[in-house]
Automatic annotation (TrEMBL):
<dbReference type="GO" id="GO:0008168">
    <property type="term" value="F:methyltransferase activity"/>
</dbReference>
<protein>
    <submittedName>
        <fullName>Class I SAM-dependent methyltransferase</fullName>
    </submittedName>
</protein>
<dbReference type="GO" id="GO:0032259">
    <property type="term" value="P:methylation"/>
</dbReference>
<keyword id="KW-0489">Methyltransferase</keyword>
<dbReference type="InterPro" id="IPR041698">
    <property type="entry name" value="Methyltransf_25"/>
</dbReference>
<dbReference type="InterPro" id="IPR029063">
    <property type="entry name" value="SAM-dependent_MTases_sf"/>
</dbReference>
<dbReference type="Pfam" id="PF13649">
    <property type="entry name" value="Methyltransf_25"/>
</dbReference>
<feature type="domain" description="Methyltransferase">
    <location>
        <begin position="53"/>
        <end position="151"/>
    </location>
</feature>
<keyword id="KW-0808">Transferase</keyword>
Length: 226
């Protein structure tokens, strides 16, 4: 994969350490309740008969556990070791280990799965992590590779109408380091279209979450057949 020219690459790469500290200090940083996008996604998956789900950027597993409790088979990946350990522990405590597989993985590297493995992929705010546009293109291509024909890719991202866009410290492209030391990549509709090559975009849903509130897109797309 081609490297991007980004003057703050070292700072961006240290985000993994930042997240490790956040997760290690609080096993339920974002609470135990599933996110609203996970609930929306579950309804879509059920309507389409999608049962084998890949979750990227799973964090500490609040959505992972929700999907498993809804009878989905979930493979959850995150690049933080602390988050993966939390997911495995919570899966065991809830007797869901047979439905949840958790792995530590950096999505800037090829996904460790064969082609056409999953019915659907879900990620909540992975696309607004400090990944460059070319890295996000790589992620989207890898997701497409491991999805079965007609597979769904559902992801959320903060976007360029968010109140924190262009605030804080500019790090690279449309990435800004905001309060708390988090670097956020704010995506435009145009960039989402670019990242959706090889997919049919079904819907781009606008919603809000948390304080401020954060403004997000939920992108629902389907793998195109070659």
């Amino acid at each position: 994969m081609q490297e991007d020219s980004c003057a703050n690459r070292e700072i961006i790469q240290k985000q993994q350490e930042h997240w490790e500290k956040i997760f290690s200090g609080n096993p339920s940083k974002f609470g135990e309740k599933a996110s609203q996008p996970a609930m929306w996604a579950a309804d879509i998956f059920k309507k389409e008969g999608k049962t084998k789900i890949l979750e990227l950027g799973a964090g500490q597993g609040r959505d992972t556990l929700f999907f498993a409790k809804e009878d989905f088979e979930v493979c959850a990946l995150d690049y933080c070791k602390a988050g993966v350990l939390d997911i495995k522990q919570k899966a065991a405590e809830n007797q869901l280990s047979d439905r949840i597989k958790a792995l530590q993985h950096d999505v800037r590297k090829p996904l460790p799965f064969n082609d056409n493995t999953f019915d659907a992929c879900y990620s909540h705010m992975l696309y607004c992590m400090p990944l460059t546009t070319s890295e996000l293109e790589f992620v989207s291509n890898e997701i497409r590779r491991v999805l079965k024909p007609e597979g769904l890719n559902i992801f959320t991202t903060r976007h360029t109408d968010d109140p924190q866009y262009r605030t804080g410290i500019h790090r690279c492209e449309d990435m800004w380091e905001i309060q708390g030391g988090f670097i956020v990549h704010f995506l435009s509709r145009e960039k989402i279209t670019r990242l959706s090559k090889g997919y049919e975009i079904i819907e781009i849903k606008e919603f809000e979450e948390g304080i401020l509130p954060k403004k997000l897109f939920m992108v629902i797309s389907r793998k195109k057949n070659k």
